[in-house]
């Protein structure tokens, strides 16, 4: 009769064989872009970071032309380097005016990188831009 392995031991061996992620430098924002939706009440933001071992946080802040905050989002301990999110403006949109999306990458209450993306609040088709 064949002896069976304990499933817990199979799991432990498999987990031990997974290589650990290593960081040669703190993560940074590699690419970021923002695209207003046709209704101008929502924004599509895409962010790519460099690889990381310990999970960082991402903070998104949208400000209007006067600098007033009109949208915020905070993502705790992101697991993947690529994020795609929809942000909702909390006030009436002002078409054609200049807004700014600020993205902060942080970990352990320390800011690792910041990116400010000024943009016009007008619909542009992301597919046509490629």
Mean pLDDT: 93
Q: Walk across the major sheet and give the strand order.
A: 4-3-6-7
Distance between the termini: 62 Å
* Rounded radius of gyration (Å): 20 Å
Total strands: the figure is 7
Describe the structure.
It contains one helix and seven strands. By secondary structure, it is mostly beta strands. It has one domain: Immunoglobulins (Immunoglobulin-like). Strand 1 and strand 2 form a beta hairpin. The termini are far apart. The relative contact order is 0.22.
Defining key terms:
130 residues; mainly beta; Immunoglobulin-like; 4-stranded antiparallel β-sheet; 3-stranded antiparallel β-sheet; 7 strands; elongated
Write the layout of secondary structure elements.
Blueprint: H1 7-17, E1 29-36, E2 42-49, E3 57-63, E4 69-75, E5 82-88, E6 98-107, E7 110-120
Antiparallel strand pairs: 1-2, 2-5, 3-4, 3-6, 6-7
Structure at a glance:
The protein is mainly beta and 130 residues long.
């Amino acid at each position: 009769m064949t002896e069976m392995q304990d499933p817990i031991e199979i799991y432990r061996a498999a987990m031990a064989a997974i290589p650990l992620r290593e960081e040669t430098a703190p993560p940074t924002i590699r690419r970021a872009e923002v695209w207003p939706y046709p209704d101008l009440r929502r924004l599509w933001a895409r962010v790519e970071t460099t690889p990381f071992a310990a999970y960082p946080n991402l903070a998104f802040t949208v400000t209007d032309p006067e600098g007033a905050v009109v949208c915020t989002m905070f993502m705790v301990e992101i697991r993947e380097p690529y994020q795609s999110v929809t942000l909702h403006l909390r006030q009436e949109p002002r078409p054609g005016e200049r807004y700014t999306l600020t993205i902060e990458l942080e970990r352990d209450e320390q800011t690792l990188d910041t990116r400010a993306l000024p943009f016009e609040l007008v619909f542009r088709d992301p597919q046509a831009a490629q």
